[in-house]
Structures are given as C-alpha cells and as structure tokens.
Amino acid sequence: MSSQAPSQQTRSSDRVVDTDTRRANALAHLLLNGALLALFGALFLRAGALPSSMWEPLGAGSFPRLVLACLMLINLGIMAQEWRHYRGAPSAAAGLVKRWLWRHRLALGVLALFALYILGVPLLGFRLASLTFLVLVQLALGVRRPRSLAIAAAIAVTFSFGLDWLFRDVFIISLPRGPFS
Prior knowledge:
Elements: H1 19-47, H2 62-88, H3 96-103, H4 105-124, H5 126-140, H6 146-170
C-alpha cells in the first residue's frame, strides 16, 4: 500500500483520484481518444488505397484496415466509458487539464513523434524516417551520456537499416524508398 493519500494517487483510468480531478481527467482522456480515433480513421481510409497484388486475395489494405478498425472500436469504447465519468463528476477547478497534459507530456511527445514518423515515411523513405524517429524518441526518453548515445545510435541504425534489409532481401517486401535511396 502506498504512503500517499488517496487524493494524491493518480492513474490512467481514474479509479483512485479525488473528485476534483476526475472530470478533468475524463475530459483529457476524451480529447486524446478522439484525436486517436480521427488519426486511425484517416489511416483506415488511406489503407484502402494500397495497391493489391495477385498473391493477396483480400488486398494489401485488408489487414491494416482490420487492425485500425479494432483500434477505432477500442477508442470508441474508452470514449463511452470516459463520457460517463465526465458527466457524473462535479466541475473541477481550473487548470487541471493542463496539469494532466504536463504529467503525460512524455507519452504525448512520443505520440507526436510517431505521427511525424508516419507522415515522414512516404517523404523520406523507411530507412531515413525510421532512423530519425528512433534517434528523436531515444533523446526524448532521456538518453544523454556518451555511452548511452552510442547505444541509442547503434539501436537506431540497426532497426532502421537492418529492418529495411530484412524486408527487402529476406522477405522480399519493398518498403518505401524515399528520395535518397
């Protein structure tokens, strides 16, 4: 059991928070899941435009669309649950959403970098976009010492160029090349 008072404990789904922050947390969760729902919906529509091949009877976009549809259903379920919490909670003091956003800044920052990565893959190609994404995420997660930076660089190069090689030469699946490939 924690030594903190119940009013100081917080967690993602708000079971153990005071009544003052419950409404703000629910609103923040509604906004986040609404943004994810919009992102997944846009990706769902884009996945339908993937070119089909004669070896794939359902088409190249069928599996990504299935995964995205499941993610959208999960987001809708979370939003329905959070809407009930939002409506049932008393009004909160001003500034609680800002504090929630600040507490979750690392997760939101990684999510923003991932969105930029998704936009960057068609423009830069898989290798360069993945390398940039992995380096930036590791820097955001706090890699600062020279040894840690070397390990982060090795991980980024291995996963960006290594995965490109694996898919291109072993699985014979072409990933986006970009203008520099």
